[in-house]
Amino acid sequence: MVEKKKKILFIEDEATLQKAIGTFLEAEGYEIISVLDGEAGIARANKDMPDLILLDLILPKKDGFEVLAELKTNEATKKIPVIVLTNLEGIGYVDRAIELGATTYLVKANYTLEEVIQKVKEALA
Amino acid sequence: MLKWISGELNIFNQCKANRISIWQCPPFLFVIMGFINISAVLSSYIAANKFFVDDPMIAALIALLISLITFIIGYAVVKSFDEMAEISQMKSEFVSIASHQLRTPLSAIRWTIDLILSGKLGPQTEEQKNILINLQESNERMINLVNNLLDINRIESGRIILKVEPVSIVEITKKTITELSNFALANNIGLEFENNAEIPFIQGDPERLKIVIQNLIDNAIKFSRSGGQAKIKITKDKKNVMMTVTDQGIGISKTEQSRMFQKFFRAKAALRQQTVGSGLGLYISRAIIESLGGKLGFQSEENKGSIFWFKLPIYPPKFLKS
Ligand SMILES: Nc1ncnc2c1ncn2[C@@H]1O[C@H](COP(=O)(O)OP(=O)(O)O)[C@@H](O)[C@H]1O
Ligand SMILES: [Mg+2]
């Protein structure tokens, strides 16, 4: 039997960035759902029940913190691991995201694509 | 004396640079206020003595009027301090927002190049690959510069350390050496790593510490001569973990040694070597180490080489508490 493809929901407003990670992960055999804002992110999380969510923090309509808070207080989506992937870096942000239930907090400018993919694989393992 | 005056004038320039009018510039207002105070005392004295000996009412009125004027000026001073504080706050917020926004497209470029180089979109010729690698290097330099500006901004607002957790200096150093090994190879510099003892963890911000270690090793490679050797060593004593980076490079002249930790400072010899850099690395590194309760310093001899070192307390109690 063929193993079911793992689903990753990617909430990110920078299309180029989304394309780079998305294409790489698809080539690695994952199914990618890409959305460009926070509200769409919450909707797709409930509808598609992904295995993992990649979440930016500065987002249109609903920011990443609000999305995280909603996902983690909703019974249905509570268990889905969330990796915060952002360029927002400052005192308190990391703590706040982790307190709200994020699995990991990655600053984009500090990681190569391979390192991000590695973190995704670890979170899905 | 001349120096003092020109120093004072510099404060006026600060107001000019911030586009604050002279009537809102605190140093100027202070001078005016002092002047009015002196004339107030003098004129009350003269008034009381000469003209209105028989009418203390008028002397009192003059005194009252003058107090009113000083009060108004005092109020203006306080207000303009507020304004200056606000401007500096705005400036730092601007830098912070601009840098975050800059980092997003820069990361997008980095990851897109990573994706193409990974071969997942199909193979490239050697030439195409080399072009992409060059592009990647330029992009990395921009990311570094933006990161540096962000760090400077954080230092100036006193928030350089973003988190404090147990950190293994040895692990960070090993990782950094691996990352810099290609750069060392390209410059024909040997990297040697030595740590004999069991090195305990320290309390720190791992990302900021990596910046320090990266910069010291990067400098040792950059400012060496082809064929040289850079030695990285980690030791400990009862209270501290200490790291030294020793090179046999161009060294630093006596006259320039005192300026090493200034923002943007790069020595003449370094400029002559045409190495890339911004002169921000040591300034940032020292600020990071000092914020963690440690010390960073160096010894150097021109044309012989340099030793850069830092030490950090093993269990800095003041950080454990907070
Ligand atoms: N190991 C070294 N040997 C000789 N000179 C050094 C060394 N490290 C730093 N310097 C001098 O100090 C300057 C500032 O260093 P740094 O702040 O790291 O800036 P950058 O690396 O961007 O030039 C360098 O430009 C160089 O002149
Ligand atoms: Mg440097």
Task: Fill in the keyword field for this structure.
heterodimer, A: 125 residues, alpha/beta, Rossmann fold, five-stranded parallel beta sheet, 5 helices, 5 strands, 18% strand, B: 322 residues, alpha+beta, Heat Shock Protein 90, five-stranded mixed beta sheet, two-stranded antiparallel ribbon, 10 helices, 61% helix, 13% strand, binds adenosine-5'-diphosphate, binds magnesium ion
What's the arrangement of secondary structure elements?
The complex is a heterodimer of chains A (125) and B (322).
Chain A: E1 7-11, H1 15-27, E2 31-35, H2 38-48, E3 52-55, H3 64-73, E4 82-86, H4 93-100, E5 104-107, H5 113-124
Parallel strand pairs in A: 1-2, 1-3, 3-4, 4-5
Helix pairs in contact in A: 2-3
Chain B: H1 2-17, H2 26-51, H3 56-117, H4 126-156, E1 165-167, H5 169-186, E2 190-194, E3 202-204, H6 206-222, E4 229-236, E5 240-247, H7 254-257, H8 268-272, H9 281-291, E6 295-301, E7 305-313, H10 317-321
Parallel strand pairs in B: 2-4
Antiparallel strand pairs in B: 1-3, 4-5, 5-7, 6-7
Helix pairs in contact in B: 2-3, 3-4, 4-9, 5-6, 6-9
The complex binds adenosine-5'-diphosphate and magnesium ion (MG).
